[in-house]
Prior knowledge:
- The termini are far apart.
- This protein has two domains: 1-77 and 168-251, Rossmann fold (3-Layer(aba) Sandwich); 88-167, no CATH class.
- By secondary structure, it is α/β, with parallel strands linked by helices.
- It has a six-stranded mixed sheet, sandwiched between helices. The chain has a four-stranded antiparallel sheet with strand order 2-1-4-5, with helices on one face.
- A hairpin with a 2-residue loop joins strand 9 and strand 10.
- The protein contains ten helices and ten strands.
Amino acid sequence: xxxVNGLSKTFGGVKAVQDxxxxxxxxxxxxxxxxxxxxxxxxxxxxxxxxxxxxxxIVFDGENVAGATPDQxxxxxxxxxxxxxxxxxxxxxxxxxxxGAHLTLNTSxxxxxxxxxxxxxxxxxxxxxxxxxxxxxxxxxxxxxxASQMPYGALKRLEIARALAAKPKILLLxxxxxxxxxxxxxxxxxxxxxxxxxxxxxxxxEHDMKLVMNLSDHILVLDYGKKLAEGTxxxxxxxxxxxxxxxxxxx
Length: 251
C-alpha cells in the first residue's frame, strides 16, 4: 500500500528525516514510534504532502507521489488527523464530518444557488453518511450538538470520523490518544481496530506504548530522524537499541 524509499527532509542545516525506508502492507496497523524530536510528525507531513521531500520516494498504491499536494493525495485515497485538534468550532459536529466528504460533493456555485434536486439528494446522502460515521466512531449522541459542546475525547474521535468521510484507503493518525484519560484511550484503541477491520490501512504515530504494542502489526522506530529499528511488537520491545533510545543505557 505504501513504500517509502530513502526519504529525507532538511530544514536549513537541520536533518529532520534522514534516508528513511520502510513499507506498509495493506489492511494492517503500522505504528511509528520514537522519542520526542525523532522526526515522527515530520515523516507524516512528508507522506501526506504538507512538506515536500528533500530526497527520496513515496510510493502510494503503486505510484510515486512525493511532492503531491494534500488534496491530490486525498483524491487518491489518503487521509489523516493531526496531533493538535483541527476541529471547526464554529460548526456543528455533523457539519465537521460532512466537510471530510467535500471531494465527492457538487461544489458548483450555480447548483448551490438554485438548489438542484441532485444537489439536495447528494447533501442528504452526505448527512446520512456523516451520521453513520459518528455512530461508528462512538460519538452518535452528539449528532445534534455543536462541536464546541463536545468534550476533548469525543472531538478526537470526531476528527477520525471526518477523515473517514473521505473514504480513504489509508488513514494516518498523529497521536490520536494524546491528552486522553485511561478510559478514552481504551475507546481509541478499540476504534482503531474497528477501522482496520473495515479494510482501511492505518499508520499511527503514538507515544502510548501500551496502545502501540497492543494494536500494531508492524512498528517502525525513529531516533534523530533515522530509522533505528522495525519489526513486530515483540521484536521491537526486545531490541536493545530501542531500549537504549527510550530509557538510556549504561556504557
